[in-house]
Predict the structure of Tetratricopeptide repeat protein.
Amino acid sequence: MPDRTIARPKGRSHARYLSTFLALVLAGCASHGSHTNSQAALPEWERAHVAAVAAYQAGNYTQSAEHARLAHQAVVATLGPQTDEAAGVLSMLAAAELANGRHAEAAEGFEASLRILRAVDEPQARDITGALNNLGELYRQQDELDRALPYFEEAHATSEAAFGATAIESARTRASLAMIRHQLGHLDQAQRDYATALELMDVAGAAPGDKARVRANQADLLARMGDTAAARAALEDVLAIEEAHLPADHPNLAYTLNSLAVVADAQKQHAEALTFYERALAIRRATLPPEHPALAVILGNMAGTYADMGNTSEARARYVEAIRILRSGSGSGSGGGGGGGNQHPDLQAYEAGLRALD
C-alpha cells in the first residue's frame, strides 16, 4: 500500500480498491449509440458482446466473462483476430477477468487488445484511450503504481488531443489520473484533478453513478488528508445515490461500504464500522469468486477492528481467512488462475496482525 498521511487504523485497506472507469465500448460495434438495431439483427459476436457489457454493468462478472469469450470466438471466426472489433472484445473479456481477480488473464487480454489497436489502420482514439486506461488500472490493482501512472497519463493526453480538454471522455481520464496520483501520495494535485473532473462531468451531464464513483474516491483522499467528517458526509451521499440507482448486491456498493467502514474506524466508531464491513462482505461473497482478494481486504479490515475492540478470537478468525485467500492462486500478485507471481501487498500486514494477537 502507498504511505498514508493520516492516522488511519492500522492495517485497514481501501485505496488499492478504489473504483476507476474501465472502457467497455467496442470499436465498430453497430449497436453502440444506436437504438434502431434490434439484438436479433446483430451478428452473433456482437450480440454476445452486448450481453457481456450488460452483465458487467450489472455486476455479474462471471457471466460477463462467459459472454465475452463466446464473442471473441465468434468475432475471430467472422472478422479475424487482428481487427479493432476483436481488440474491443478482448478488452471486454479482460475487464471481466480483472473484476473476477484473474490478473494474469486480464493482463494478457488488455496487452493483446492494445497491440492490435496500435497495428490497425486509423484506430479510434476512444479505443486507444480505453486500452491505455485499462492497462493502467490493471497495474494499479497490483500495487505497481509507478508502472500504472504512464498509462493513465497517456490515456488522458490522448483523450484531450482527440476530444478536447472539456469533453466527458477527458473528464473520465482525468478522474482516473487523479486516483493514481492520490495513491502515489500526490494529494494536492489529486484533489485538483478530482475537482476538475467532477466539474466537467457536471457540465457534460454525466450519469449519477459515474460522478458517485469519483466522489467516493475523492472522499478517501479527504480522509487521507485528515478531514474524516467531510469524507464521511461525502460517502454517505454516494451510498444514497448508489442505493437509488444500483441493485442491492451490486459490487460498487461494497467499495463505498468498505470506505465508510474505514472512515468510521478512524473516528473510533468500531461497532458501526463492523456493520458496514459485514454488508460489504455479504455483497462481495455473493458477487465475486470465493478466492477473490477483495474478500480478503474486507476480512483483514474487520480483523483489525475486532482487535481494536479487544475481541481476539473474532480477529484471529478473520485474519486466518484473509491470509488463506491471499495465499491462494487468486490472491497472488499476478491474480487468480494465472498461477504464481508476486505476493499480494496486504499479505504481510495481515500475517503481522495475526502474530500480534498472540
Residues 1-9, 25-37, 330-340 have pLDDT under 50 and may be disordered. The longest helix spans residues 61-79. The radius of gyration is 20 Å.
